[in-house]
Automatic annotation (TrEMBL):
Residues 336-348 have a biased composition (Acidic residues). PANTHER family: SUPERKILLER 3 PROTEIN-RELATED, SUPERKILLER COMPLEX PROTEIN 3. GO terms for cellular component: Ski complex. InterPro entries: Ski3/TTC37 (IPR039226), TPR-like_helical_dom_sf (IPR011990), TPR_22 (IPR040962), TPR_rpt (IPR019734). Keywords: Repeat, TPR repeat. PROSITE patterns: TPR (PS50005). One of its GO terms (biological process) is RNA catabolic process. The keyword Ubl conjugation does not apply. It comes from Coniochaeta ligniaria NRRL 30616. It comes from the Eukaryota. Residues 325-351 are annotated as: Disordered. TPR repeats lie at residues 459-492, 654-687, 988-1021, 1148-1181. This is TPR-like protein.
Amino acid sequence: MAANKALLKEIGQDLQKSRFSDAISKAKEVLERDPRNYQAHIFLAFALDGNKQPEDAESIYTAAAAYKPNDPQAWQGLVKLYQKLGPHKLKQYQHAALKLAEIYRDAGDMYKCQDVVDKFIGYAQKNGERQQYAEALSLILPDSPIYPALEGRVPHPAKTYETIVQIVEGDEKREINTLIGERRTRIGARINDVTLEVKREVFSKSRLGHLYRQLIEWSIDDDVRRTYEEKLFQYCYERLLAFPPGEEKAQELNLVLKLANDMVIIKHPYKAAWDVAIDWQDHKDIKEWDFGVLREYITFFPDSDLTRVLSGFLSSSISPFPNIKEEKPVASVGDETGEDESEDDDEGGVQTTYIPTTEEDRMMMMSEGITSANSLLAYRLMGEYYQYLEEYAGNVDLMHKAKKHLEEEQTKTGLPFLFTSDSYSLYLGTALVLHQSPRYHQDAKALFDGVLSHDPTSTPALIGVGLIWEEEQEYDQAIDFLERALKRDATNLRVKTEAAWVKALKGDYAMGRAELEACIPLIIEKSESKELLAQTQYRLGFCIWNLDTSKAARKDRAGAYAYFMGALRSNLNFAPAYTSLGIYYADYAKDKRRARQCFQKAVELSPSEVESAERLARLFADDGDWDRVELIAQRIVDTGRVKPPPGSKRKGISWPFAALGVAELNKQEYHKAVVSFQSALKLAPDDYHCWVGLGESYYNSGRYIAATKAITNAQKLEDNLASHVTGDTWFTKFMLANIRRELGEFDTAIDLYREVILARPAEEGVIISLMQTLVESATDNLEKGFFGKAIQLARENLNYATKVPNCVSFTFNFWKTIADSCSIFSTIQGHIGEFPVETVKTLLGSNEGEEFKLLQDTDGIGTGVLFAKGLFPDDEKVGVDLTKCLHATILAHKRAIHLSAHDIHAQAVAYYNLGWAEHRAHICLPEPMRKSLSRYLKAAIRCFKRAIELEAGNSEFWNSLGVVSSSVNPAVSQHAFCRSLYLNEKAAHVWSNMGTLALVENDFKLANEAFTRAQSTDPDYAHAWVGQGLVALMYGDAREARGLFTHAMDISGASSLISRQLYSVSMFDHILTAPSNLPITSLIHPVLALTQLQALNPQALSYGHLCALFQERTHDNARAISTLEKICATVEAEYEATELQEAAKRFALAKTDLARSYLSSGSYDKAIEAGEVALSLSSDESENELTPEERRKARLSANLTVGLAHCFSGDVSEAVAFFETALRESDGNPDAVCVLAQVLWAAGGEKEREKARELFFGVLESTPDHVQVVLLMGVVALLDQDEDMIEAVVEQLQALRSTDGKVSSVEQGQIGEVMRAIATLREKTTEEDVLSQIQTDILLRPYLPHGWLELAEAGDGEEAAKAAELAVRVARKGVPPKGDLGAEDLAKAYAGTGLAADGQTAIVVAPWAKEGWVALSEAVSG
């Protein structure tokens, strides 16, 4: 023990001299001897602290304090140590400081006790964070163990609590904002959810509520206390909103309600608390609210929205509370003299809030308040007031908004608000029942049922359901609900009269009358509303009206009439009474003026008066006032009464929709009319007239398929129609005919029109429609190429026109159809001989009327030519008939102008039509005359100018003027086209005309732009493509032009002459280039086009000649001969008449081509005769305009033709002479050489054959790649067995067959045949060589059937069958349009299979080819 003391003394000396290491070792030595030595612990800790070992020092001090907790040394050491260690040890510092202060307190040393605490708080404020400082301040709060000792020495607890509150408030606010900022960026996060989550998290560990309460408890300043009471309320309110439903939320709810009610009790004017205290109450009736609280709320918060609503409601007559207008100011105590002392004290005083005194001011004030109010009570009061004012539409919107707000409040507070929800449902249900009844009955009934489910005795709900059943005509159920409501409130006269009325509606008029009569005195006695009295009187009159339905009883003014008038005396604006009076005046008093006034007044007062509306609409419809009909019908539709709810017994009301449809039809609003008629038909599916109206609406809006279905449905109903409607059923046939006409089904339409005319022969509109349809059908057939049918229809129309009633002939459309029918004949000039001149004469009349003198000074057209008599030569008959047809067309249009004098628009159109007729006459003139300004063209220009004067805004008129003036004055033409495009820039034909004008004026760039614009505007307009093709020709791109002409041909109608002309010429030019892959369609389509062209204009001989050339190439020799014979006859007659060299030239060329056709058909003598004529006409000595090239080709063709004709006739020597002449004149043409060589070889003499060989060699030197020459040389070499020659020929053929594009498919087949023949007939050849040759042929041209057929013939069994099958497959792919194989090649492929079915197919494909017949014969016989 002594040793320990000595060591402790040494340790003390070492510490004084700062020898901390020595002190540490010695202190440890002491502790080894005495581990519980307190002083050694103190020294060791001090030494460790001095030796920079604070953690070890802390542990030693702590151990020492445990040994002697009431000794201050260890705690003092810890305090000093913690001051050095910084704020991270602040919590331990607080514990040590508290222990040290308690030791000093127990020792009675208050100075040191306070000093320790003050130093710690100052240290924490200076070095610690805000939260640590707030924790440090807790040492001087009342709940601190040392507070009793320091009370009076430290600040008042209220001040300390306020400081802590400010710190905690700031920290929590920052934490909330920080967490929201971090979490709101998460994927899928929503700001509201994040905010609630963060607040819930922060509030769950917050002690701010406790601090608020302590501050309020300790504060001695009333202002501070009130401020923090408000903060506590707001804090608790936010916690309530943040917590989810559960126990915590319920606790916070009770706390918030207590705080709010406490503030109301002490009358602290904090609006949020008052709003909660008033708004969160849930009572069944409004009268259960505390009037005093409501009155004080108005006083404290005069500018709030709830105050405006409360002030209005409490001052109204429906308020269950004392009227606030009658409130007297409460005088101050001792105020007996009424001196000028302020009465605005806390116990009462003068009213400081404006209180409305009139209904208008009250309504304005309450409406202003409810607009921005978020108060359950405000919505409830406003709903009650709206219901009182019968503002049902406004109440519907308001209650929808209120229920949405109620859901939000229920979610926020967790309160059920059952009574408030029921009141909203009742207000909304009542408004829905009475607003646009019965549109919202289903919604209203659901609301009432919801209330009755937990409150079966709710009188308003029972009444509401009763009214719904009444409207739905479920009278038994309505009576049940109303009587149940009456049991709850037997004095309710409104319910009692409603129950009596339902009985009357059920048909028990006597009971209804008795009960209603009993109610009237009670209503008068109780001074009920005038509206109820008027309603009861009307209903009583209704019962009397239906009890005795005799005419005398209803005319009795002392009966029902008196009660109807009494209802109006009670309420001048009671609409049903006006309806009943209107019926009385209309049906019994026969006073239409008064009836109309009554119906109009009823509709003005109430759109629910459907009977008045229907009768009034019919009156306006009879007057043709469709605007008013539409107005009335739309008003009835808007009420919602026309459509019954699902499951209702009540029938829908269809007439308003039907009336709307008819009105919209008259206004040409067809899409709206469709919707209206569809709505009407949903309510009345068997309404015949609605189906007709729907069909007409669909028709006028261009929906023809739907229109057909509608009219068909209407026709299905015709058998069941009443007799007075049956006479109008013709209109459905007429409409169906119109629809078929628009769909292009003209034959069906014509038949339907004729059926209608049989029943109504004088129906002018149907007659005109039939005539127009006949013309349209003729035009349609013209465009499709059915020229005979078009002519037939035009004749039918003209014949029918002579049989129509006389009144029809005085209409513009009649003469337009006559003119259009005549123009069909002038368009199809091949049938001009069928023009019914006598019929047209009958129609026009023989008198030279005033109408025919129109423009006669210009065009010179009257009835003279048409009525001229006499016989004309056959060659002039076509021209005479055409002239008569053109004159008839023009005269018909002139009469149309005369008949349209009263209508400027129709007259403008008539001049337009006449202008085109004059222009048509101009272009039908002979070509030399068309180049000058003819009288027809002058008349056309005048017509179009007159049309423009009458209607300058019509783009078509300007376009027409541009067309007719293009050859006269290009500047005027350009101006007219520009004006037309200004009026309608989307007119493709005008752009095409502009391009054509530019093309004529050699402005190719402008032409190209115009045609391109036309194509983009309407890609299906053929002439735009034609124009583009002409531009391509001008730039030298024949291939592009041919493609454009082909496309134009494909999309154009058969009447387009220019498309067919240019297409045919371009295709013939292409054929002349001898393309190797020319499809057969390239020959067929031009023939079709030229055939149509001949029918349209048979006088165009050049195109007839071109058609014959195409027919020659398609082996149609008969038609080619017929065509060329006609041309030769016509040209010969022309030459004899005019002796023009051009005619002689055309005759020579035609004879040349005719000779070839004779040769192809086997008429060799005729071929020789025609050929010799052609040779004589094309000789150098002949006088014609043949160019040298034309002369060379004509003579070559004629010499070859005559030579072949002599050859086939057996005169070889004569044939050789012509061939030699052909060779001499054509400078050794290779084709002529081939023909001559073949003839020489066929002659059989060695001399002739040697000459043939010489000819072949000569051609091969000049044209070694001529396929026919090489082939013939191969055959000759094979016959001569000349191996050297065969080798040379095989080499040349190998080179030719491997050349792409230069050898056609036919020539490829011929090369293959020669090669196989050589391989077969040469000496020293084997079957393998033949097979190898066939395989080589297939390898080089696998897409051609020739090699496969040879392989099938060379093989046998299954391999041969497969090869034959492959031949058929490649042949089918090689025919047009995919390839250029001919029908014979396909027939050979089918015949090669050996099957009977394929043999039949071969015959069908090429009946002239023998292979098909042979194959079929072998298959049948074998």
